[in-house]
Design goal:
The protein has three domains: 201 residues, Tetratricopeptide repeat domain (Serine Threonine Protein Phosphatase 5, Tetratricopeptide repeat, Alpha Horseshoe); 95 residues, no CATH class; 123 residues, Collagenase (Catalytic Domain). Helices cover 48% and strands 7% of the residues. Helix 2 links the parallel strand 2 and strand 3. It is globular and about 65 Å long. The protein is built from 17 helices and six strands. The protein is of the alpha/beta class.
């Protein structure tokens, strides 16, 4: 199982404003508020996720579909999990941010999911080995993967020795005893943390991802990158004493309603909201639209195909909105009217449900960039201010920093120079966590600055 590199939610802002007539690209954005030395990196305080709010009937259906099928579509014959206390060790060239983020995650798993899990020294034997490797080595073995988890191995060398054999086949497992997670160390602190959350969740529990889920990291749309209340409930249910390794789909389905009634009594009175499976044709269209291999023209055509399939399915849920969001992003550079219309439709869908407010914030960021580039600073600020809360709750520092950078440029347009400098300085601390290297932070700040009419040559 793996976290993919190419997700529309991860590729934040790419192109919102075309150069002004006569601009040959030589114009440089003014960064009056950019300090010579960047401020210290900011991180989010310890937080506990909100409880799942959906119907237990819906959660039971999602649990089964997550647990008894791989992302490839292959069926998993029996449930597998760790039996007994779980130990975790970290090996390789470990970046400084990884230790605190892993400690926070393990604490949450113990507190919110009730899982007996703890870290042991790198030299000790462990149930789960998290090995830090270079991005280059990781992608040489598994192209397009940001990070991934495999069973029955404890090192990168061991995995490479049998990566095409049955040893690492999840469908042959009955009980999980030893597995490894591989994470690149030469990337941003946020991406490392996101990999920890997604891969450790799949190392412990379900192995599938479902695009229909609006409130979970078990979704390849990459909006949620930190374990949610739904995810913690799924993991708590996965390790409930009423379940055990080796149980079939039918056995788990029979016991799950009782488990959820006990763990999530509030979900008993919530009406179910039916959501059919995502057709393979739609998934293929989304993956082509978001993947790096196709040409821009083919990717945009795939996004249009995803929208058409979603419309044909009669969807009004997050999958319809995600199709529109993907089309909007892929239309930015050449068809801004299509992009804007797609974003507005996506936002309307996301805004209609409490569990998709983070998704709405991603769309609002794109709309705020449009507002900034078209010299509507007050509209940009309003969009940013309305999106900050769900972004902070989701601990998305990259998106948080980008929103603040847009607000700083908008404040500059309004002549609020002192406030703009304060907001920009705040954004840089979050950007150091979200984007990593100083050069990446400055590059993002420059990209956002160039959206402002005051910074575009001839604008």
């Amino acid at each position: 199982m793996m976290k993919f590199l190419a997700g529309a939610a991860l590729a934040l802002l790419t192109a919102c404003a075309a150069p002004s007539p006569g601009d040959n690209g030589a114009g440089a954005a003014r960064l009056d508020g950019m300090p010579l030395a960047l401020p210290p990196m900011k991180t989010f305080p310890t937080a506990t996720s909100h409880r799942a709010t959906r119907s237990n009937a819906d959660i039971a259906r999602d649990f089964i579909d997550l647990s008894f099928q791989l992302e490839s579509g292959r069926a998993i014959p029996v449930m597998s999990r760790f039996e007994g206390p779980i130990s975790v060790r970290v090996t390789g060239d470990v970046p400084p941010s990884m230790g605190p983020d892993l400690a926070r995650l393990l604490s949450r798993l113990r507190r919110e999911a009730g899982i007996s899990i703890s870290q042991v020294p790198a030299s000790a034997a462990a149930s789960i080995t998290i090995e830090v490797v270079s991005r280059r080595d990781l992608q040489r073995s598994v192209p397009q993967a940001a990070c991934f988890v495999v069973p029955r191995v404890a090192s990168w060398d061991e995995y490479r020795g049998d990566r095409r054999g049955t040893l690492v086949d999840w469908t042959t497992l009955t009980t999980r005893e030893r597995l490894a997670i591989f994470i690149p160390g030469d990337t941003s602190p946020q991406e490392i943390r996101d990999c920890l959350h997604e891969e450790l969740a799949q190392a412990l529990g379900p192995l599938n991802d479902l695009y229909r889920l609006p409130d979970s990291v078990f979704n390849d749309d990459n909006f949620h990158t930190v374990l949610t209340g739904f995810d913690m409930l799924v993991l708590r249910s996965y390790y409930d004493p009423a379940l055990s390794s080796g149980m079939t789909r039918e056995q788990v389905a029979q016991r799950l309603p009782m488990i959820l009634a006990r763990l999530n009594p509030a979900g008993q009175g919530v009406p179910p909201r039916p959501a059919g499976a995502s057709p393979r044709a739609w998934i293929d269209a989304v993956e082509e639209a978001l993947g790096p291999r196709a040409t821009p023209q083919r990717r945009q055509a795939a996004a249009r195909r995803a929208v058409q399939i979603a419309q044909g399915q009669g969807w009004t849920d997050n999958r319809m909105a995600f199709s529109l969001f993907a089309l909007g992003r892929l239309s930015l550079s050449g068809e801004s009217d299509v992009a804007l219309a797609s974003f507005l439709q996506a936002r309307k869908i996301y805004d209609s449900r409490p569990e998709t407010q983070l998704h709405a914030a991603h769309v609002a960021m794109q709309l705020a960039a449009f507002a900034l580039s078209s010299n509507q600073p007050r509209a940009a600020i309003e969009l940013v201010d309305g999106s900050i809360a769900p972004v902070a709750e989701a601990e998305n520092a990259a998106l948080y920093a980008t929103l603040l950078m847009i607000k700083a440029e908008a404040l500059d347009l309004l002549g609020e120079a002192a406030q703009a400098r304060a907001v920009r300085l705040d954004s840089l601390g979050w950007a150091r966590y979200g984007f990593g290297a100083d050069a990446a932070v400055r590059e993002r700040a420059s990209e956002i600055a160039q959206l402002s009419p005051r910074n575009r040559t001839g604008g």
